[in-house]
Amino acid sequence: MAGGSSPNYTCPQKVDDGTSCRADTPPPQPLGLCAVTTSTYGNSDWGYSDVLVWKVLPTWIGGDPDHLRNYKDAWVRTHRGLIVKLSAQYGLPPELLAGVTWIEAGGKPYSSKLVLYRFRQFAHMADPMLGPTEITQKPGLTSTGAVAIQLRRAAQTMGVDFDGLSENDKDRLVDCLQVDENDLAIVARHLWQLKQIDFADQSKIGVDEIRIIGARYNRGPDLSLDEIYRNTSYGDFIVNRIYSRLQSLLGD
């Protein structure tokens, strides 16, 4: 063994105890990017009271039409170290991940997304017997996490099918995305996978590529490039509207 160090055993080292040691070994987990259980960033929630301040209340009693924009700015600024680190890991411009983060953070109360998921989950409980219901969309189409990503896309990013997961693992994925570190790690890997669709052999990713990858994040990986070009508004917003802002937020 390198360095001459002794291994740390967690099971008794008698031959007859081998079976009990094997039984105690945790089973392999399919959700490999859900490693963090408690965020180091604290509470970055966006709730109904935030919507009230942003959308409903007049300024003279505490309303603030800039409340959402300020929240988005603060979210990117607070997480900029992780955004830069993950972007470097996947060979992506940090403005791409930061741009998706800025667009997705805030808006709908985060708790409302969890309620929507539970409603869809309940509505589709009868699917195996009755076929897909017409009441609502499938649970896997629910977007959750501060940097909103569909549950099915998050699962696909980790190489598994959401519908094929156990109910416990589905719940684990939902909980996983409520932790900022997991959420950003999954979104970053998903963006890298989207990059591979159109620019697999391209090491330099500039604003034109950001435009397309951003559009794919919003519209999905299954469309042809010609179809993506028909509507690149999501990517356009990143490169035309907030690019300089993102650079400032990442550089502070």
Instruction: Give the end-to-end Cα distance, rounded to a whole number of Å.
Output: 45 Å
Measured by DSSP, the beta-strand proportion falls in under 5%
Q: What's the mean pLDDT score?
A: 81
SS-derived structural category = mainly alpha
> How many DSSP E strands?
2
How many H/I helices?
14
Rg over CA atoms? 21 Å
Strand order of the largest sheet: 1-2
User: Strand-and-helix sequence, N→C?
Assistant: HHHHHHHEEHHHHHHH
Overall 3D form: globular
**Tell me about the biggest sheet?**
2 strands, antiparallel
Low-confidence stretches: 1-28
Share of residues in helices: 55-70%
Describe this structure in words.
With 252 residues, the chain is mostly helical. The protein contains 14 helices and two strands, in the order H-H-H-H-H-H-H-E-E-H-H-H-H-H-H-H. The chain has a two-stranded antiparallel ribbon. The longest helix has 20 residues, at 180-199. Residues 1-28 have low confidence and may be disordered.
In short:
The chain has 252 residues and is mainly alpha-helical. The protein has 14 helices and two strands.
Q: How would you summarize the topology of this molecule?
A:
Layout: H1 18-24, H2 48-56, H3 67-78, H4 80-89, H5 94-104, H6 110-123, H7 127-130, E1 143-144, E2 149-150, H8 151-157, H9 167-176, H10 180-199, H11 207-219, H12 225-229, H13 233-241, H14 243-251
Antiparallel strand pairs: 1-2
